[in-house]
Design brief:
Blueprint (H helix, E strand, L loop, with lengths): L31 E5 L3 E4 H15 L4 E4 L5 E5 L12 E9 L4 E6 L3 H13 L5 E5 L7
Antiparallel strand pairs: 1-6, 1-7, 2-5, 3-6, 4-5
Protein name: Large ribosomal subunit protein uL16
InterPro entries: Ribosomal_uL16, Ribosomal_uL16_bact-type, Ribosomal_uL16_dom, Ribosomal_uL16_sf
Keywords: Ribonucleoprotein, Ribosomal protein, RNA-binding, rRNA-binding, tRNA-binding
Length: 140
């Protein structure tokens, strides 16, 4: 007799915020970057807010790369719900950011314009960040 095929349920666990970034910690595309100094979950709304702030400051000049992606679902139960009744619905998606991770990169704009754009993006984030410049950047 054939048994029914068992379906594995994939559980979503929290990913650890311990340690430093093992990948994504060097500039890969642009001349300037915004580096995380603290561990935190960054929501998709915060990433989009930063993207808009950078785009407005650069006035569509240069090129921007977003180096993080919100691929982890966060669930929540409705307010004033009793215990039990299982796991809540997906509330939002977050990106796991560890210290050292490059969040955004910019190329094709002057240093001061890039610094100001990253400063505006920094205001939108719940973590401390650092503006970094590529080692072989000559400024011309």
């Amino acid at each position: 007799m054939l048994e029914p095929k068992r379906v594995k349920r994939r559980r979503q666990h929290r990913r650890s915020l311990k340690g430093t970034a093992q990948r994504g910690h060097t500039l890969a595309h642009g001349d300037f970057g915004l580096k995380a100094l603290e561990p935190k979950y960054i929501t998709s709304r915060q990433i989009e807010s930063c993207r808009i702030a950078i785009a407005r400051q650069l006035q569509r000049d240069g090129q921007t790369w977003i180096r993080i992606f919100p691929d982890m679902p966060k669930t929540a139960q409705p307010a004033e719900t009793r215990m039990g009744k299982g796991k809540g619905a997906v509330e939002e998606y977050v990106a796991v950011v560890k210290p050292g991770r490059i969040l955004f990169e910019i190329a094709g704009v002057p240093l001061e314009l890039a610094r100001e754009a990253m400063r505006r993006a920094d205001y939108k984030l719940p973590i401390k960040t650092k503006f970094i410049v590529r080692r072989d950047y000559d400024g011309s």
